[in-house]
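Q: Here's a chain of 376 amino acids. Please give me its 3D structure as tokens.
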Amino acid sequence: MRGDEDGLTALVEEARWALDVCNACQFCDGYCAVFPALKRRQSLALADLALLSNLCHNCRSCYHACQYAPPHAFAVNLPKSLSRLRHQSYRDHAWPKALAGRLRRNGRFVLSVTLLAVVATLLLAVLWLPPEVLLGRHAGPGAFYRVLPWGVIAGAAGLAAGWSLLAVGLGVVAFWRSLGPPPAGAAMLPALREALRDAATLRNLGGGGVGCNDRDERFSQARRRFHHAMAYGFALCFASTMVATAYDHLLGWPAPYPVLSAPVLLGCLGGAGLMVGTAGLALLQRRAHPGPVAPELIGADRALLAQLFLTAASGFCLLAARETPAMGPLLAIHLGIVLGFFITLPCGKFLHAPFRAAALLRAALERQASGNGRSR
């Protein structure tokens, strides 16, 4: 415990030192929302450090532009310091608190739970279902539910999703409250629109507009585009689920649906985006310059990319194998991967999305209160 406290103190002091140097230099002011927010602060409390770390999108442009970066004696490495602080903020506001320990070097834990969920779902299907049902050919409306009843699929997925939404939601609320009351004189609705626009466009993942430094000093928009493909692919998959739910509950049309139906088309577009985005981000991560990267956090990044890729890939396999004997086992495998994703979501890298959105909203409120409007 003492070692953890000493490590946190060293981490905080390192980040404060780097940010003090940045505030004195101000060369990177136009790169992202971190530096304007830093200039608005005369001192850096723990809450300020948590906000700034979650505003950082880890584009690494400041590292490659910094005259004080290694091998300079100051050894300023802001992306690495802020990524460690950002991860610490997830642990500080985890709900329930028992999850805090699972957020430390958790890539192996996340993948292990996902694998366990797949094995358990497939094993239960083998033990529970007669072979002629599990390996039978099922066609037409309701074919999925002749293998696994609707109540089993919806109940398992609903419980896992409900758990993750509750845990993530309470964690983000705790993070928001830790930042203190919103600044006076700021209107919530305009700030919310601005924050949503920043999040949707990934404006801060652009190094001031010229792109990220994925490997060296050369600028590239590749990471931003792959991240867009992944994020909007995820959104399309969610939309596919919502449309399918409306088809089933409101119109009485049970799955599976025709290939040219809205749920399948949305799911295919979303799945393709997920696979392209996650594969591209994994490739960029593998080739990334090691300097601004915190090595202990790489596992969490890779685990999330693997989960999302496998979710999309198993969905495509299930689509291709409909009306074949492989449909039953593939349905169980796909359900297991989805369950593993939702079970581990509150202690995985996916937390960066809601925490970053909250930080963007707080930064937009601060800009309004200071009368500066939108940061450049």
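Q: Can you summarize the key feature?
A: The chain has two domains: 2-95, 102-177+202-361.
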